[in-house]
């Protein structure tokens, strides 16, 4: 295949000083990178992060409460769709929230990694050379001594080594500006590099924490299910009432474990404050006998990185339904959801779609359950959360429930549209105590036979949370080191005393963090003064007030 | 677990006494500002750190101020007794609802002020400005958050209550003092900017701006790791109580927001362009977030932290 190359325009001579496109892009990139990793940007991003989290607490969130979101959408038909498009109901999973924290973390990494490299270098290297003018440091002093320069520096070095400083001595450099006080040997000392270590640990732990959190979200899952006493479930998404799972979870590869609820107990104080919820369960692999254990509030089952929680409880009234032909459905029950946690008054529905061959009509009971019922003005209410006098107020319906219509419906209520269309008709209502029977017009008898308790159980799998915990502990350790430690640098230089034959020792110190540095510096110079005087054959100056030679610290021979 | 009614009643009486004592302290501190000798003050060169908090070396003791301090100390003892008797009455830690939480937070704030007043006499003069919000907060707590002494709900019966709530109370109390110091710093800056001729204002009797800023920063530095620990402990507790360590429950969200704001404050204070006034504003916002988290999240929003005990 041959093609004719289009005539190429003669290449224009490049502008003389113009850098290449690559170099310009690099320069632009560097400029933006520097801007992003600047502390000022980081502060702005921190505030953006705080601001971005606010709508997540003020608006209902799908991750917390689906029903609240539905209610909000129903109450605000014009505003809600706009908000929804802005991810206002999924703030913490929204692209803009992710954008803020990812930018913040890029900024953090861009700031911390160069500092990490620098810190590693600094840990290996000797303390930096003394600045030219020690008097300019926040704390500085000059001490005169008859000792020769090297001997005076020996004293300083000893004093600093006792205080666990890293010390390095340097010969007086020719490059120091000429002058009486800046020509001699010098000494640099440093202490407290753990402060910067803590700083880096803190910031890197934040990155680790985010990674652990993300890993847990990707490979984690949780499922919730209501289990009535005597029943159980196995860990599979088909069984759960609701479940959520990370993008990398294979639904066929969940931990094979089954849990049976044997007994559930709710205990109350005298004033009916809930004191404890405990569930006796058996757990084990499918088909196994299972090991018994008890779980409760604040006390989940932990097995191989998975956890099973009791997150709620309620009552499941039991009914025996006897058809006119004598067919009996004994002790069928359905969980009723508590509408008031204080009295445990509950609402729910029992659906019987299949009453046997030849029976076309389906049967349903919908109603209100009171663990301790009291009739007030013809209305059943509950006055106690304990099942002292269980009563139900039920409406019985016969007809078509619409369960196979393809539209999902709540298990806790009947499909209103079937009632409105007349396919499901009310055929009776009654308030029943245990043992009482409602007889329907066609002769069907519905007997309230008692009540079971159910527990809301949650199965959770989060492989990231151990990492998050480790990162959080490291974060705290780093933070404490960063905030509580101080980094001190002390410099000293000797020069000839312009007034006589002795030496002038200049000392300066630079402290980062930890507040007041003047007192500790005064204490250091006092000690130096005393040690210098002790070494001197004849004290050149009277010891300053209170700074007497300390017999506890004898000058060490070297 | 029954409630001892006489101890519960004693606790309520002590609460009123503590409020009364603190009110007396406010009067004493105000008298100090009004009639007390103005502290001798050297002009502070801009940006200078050393010598900035040179105390006014009181040759003559300022009796009003010391009286205020003494009454505050007695008040703090009574205030502590409020919580102790309440805890004894219900036989549990006395921070199971908003009333007890707020009472404890205010106590921490008072104690932090007392410690500051002893350790840094230069900032003792902020007494009126700490105690006045303290009295307001306590009265509001008593009026709007009061809850009868009672047992804990099941979810709170965990040893993490002692760890998580105690540290949250500590952090909050410390941030309370820090926020007040930043407010005073901002006021002081304004009064300084107006010039010395406005020196008759009570603001000129405050500690100098550098000292106030330093107190605000030091207390925030002290409070931040404690708050961090409180959040981490809360996450650990949430993992065993609610099935996940973090779920953006409104309380968690606002604790996170507060943490981020205080992290911002600590960074701002060491960043060129943010030092001074802007950083102080960040600290004030932090305190506002803490208060919002206590009031709004417990009283208005529906979340898992609804232990307020209010109907």
TrEMBL record, chain A:
GO cellular component terms listed in the entry, alphabetical order = membrane
Tell where it localizes: Membrane
Q: Where are the transmembrane segments?
A: 41-59, 96-117, 200-221, 466-485
Give the highest taxon in the source lineage.
Answer: Bacteria
How does the record classify its membrane topology?
A: Multi-pass membrane protein
Q: Tell me the organism's taxonomic lineage.
A: Bacteria, Bacillati, Actinomycetota, Actinomycetes, Geodermatophilales
Q: Which GO terms describe its biological process?
A: cytochrome complex assembly
User: Is Nucleotide-binding among this UniProt entry's keywords?
Assistant: no
Query: For the region Disordered, what residue ranges are annotated?
Result: 528-558
Q: Does the keyword Membrane apply?
A: yes
Protein name per UniProt:
Cytochrome c biogenesis protein
Record key words, sorted:
Cytochrome c-type biogenesis, Membrane, Transmembrane, Transmembrane helix
- Annotated PANTHER family: CYTOCHROME C BIOGENESIS PROTEIN CCS1, CHLOROPLASTIC (PTHR31566:SF0)
Where does the ResB-like domain start and stop, copy by copy?
A: 39-513
From TrEMBL, chain B:
Instruction: List the InterPro entries.
Output: Cyt_c_assembly, Cyt_c_biogenesis_CcsA, Cyt_c_biogenesis_CcsA/CcmC
Database matches in Pfam families: Cytochrom_C_asm
- What GO biological process terms does the UniProt entry carry, in alphabetical order? cytochrome complex assembly
The entry's localization annotation reads: Membrane
GO MF terms on file?
A: heme binding
Q: Its membrane topology, per UniProt?
A: Multi-pass membrane protein
Q: Say if the entry is tagged with keyword Membrane.
A: yes
* Keywords from the UniProt entry: Cytochrome c-type biogenesis, Membrane, Transmembrane, Transmembrane helix
Give the superkingdom in one word: Bacteria
Instruction: Using the record, list the residue span of the signal peptide; answer none if the entry has no such feature.
Output: none
Q: Where are the transmembrane segments?
A: 14-35, 64-84, 96-116, 128-147, 159-187, 220-238, 253-268, 280-304
> Where's the Cytochrome c assembly protein domain?
95-305
* Major localization class: membrane
Record-level GO cellular component terms? plasma membrane
Q: Which PANTHER family does the protein's record reference?
A: CYTOCHROME B_B6 PROTEIN-RELATED (PTHR30071:SF1), HEME EXPORTER PROTEIN C (PTHR30071)
NCBIfam families per the UniProt record, alphabetical: cytochr_II_ccsB
Protein name, entry field: Cytochrome c-type biogenesis protein CcsB
